[in-house]
Amino acid sequence: MEHPMMVFTRSVLRGCGQVMFQKNAVTGLIFFAGIFYNSTTLGICALLGTVTSTGTALLLGADKDLIQDGLYGFNGTLAGIAIPFYFSFEPTLLLLVVLNGAFSTIVMAALLQFLGKWEVAPLTAPFVLSTWVFLLSAHTFHLFAPGPLLVPALPHSAPVAELGRVSGMTLWEGLTKGVGEVMFQDHVITGCLFVVGLAVNSRISALLGLLGSMVGLLTAWILKAPESSLHLGLYGFNSVLCGIALYGVFYSPGKGVGACTIAAMIMCAITTAAMGVLLAPMGIPALTGPFVLVTWFFLFAGRQFSVLEKAMPKPSELSENMCD
Fold first, then answer.
1. What is the Cα–Cα distance from 104 to 134, expressed in whole angstroms?
2. pTM to 2 decimals?
3. Which class would CATH give 163-317?
């Protein structure tokens, strides 16, 4: 019989991998390595958030198969990273990391119960909702200092990226960082490591990740988004998640599904801009909200379109790798 600590460790690693729908402990380990390569602080908080969310599910008696597949861990990974990313870091901030990771598990269970009747997955909504709660509370509670990214402000214009005037370096870094920004990582090497991690479990997922980042970047470029945002990959990461989710995880690969996936990638980039404008006056980021919103629309719409009727797994089956 396998030692419980080994089972838990594998669950935590899979939890990190499930951020991009990969039920693979090696993939999760590479993802963690990519985060630590960019920032030790973010790496520690990512690990702590994943351990906390997975441990909370275990202590509260959640379905063991879901826990072992990492489905109670991935929101904790993101919830853990978000806290030091948006707050000025100090050791006591680890308390918020633990609270956010644990609360994301509660929200995950609630959304599994609510959305299960339609066989639609919560995706990263638990991370988004729980993190919004803590980020909004920063405007009232002053124990932890909010960083510069949490300052409420009206939307403002910025220098736009003109077609034909964006450097190759901007496009290259925007492409790779678009994958890295799925987990708040503004680093080319980290983005490349994430692609390697995806390829370890599914080459198709790796290609979809790169395609999603490219489609998001090109959409924003054509629509004349600020060049600084293109360089950081900020219009690509939601499209990365959307592409991997729709093509092969929730729907069987096919021409019609491929076309819908590209459309969803484009809409993710546009929705990223829209939600950014909507939330700027409150001083909170959209996070992966655009991915959740667009993907939910396509999942619910699938019941009306025959081309999207195939391979809609139940929440308990989301860990299955349907890409290879």
1. 11
2. 0.92
3. mainly alpha
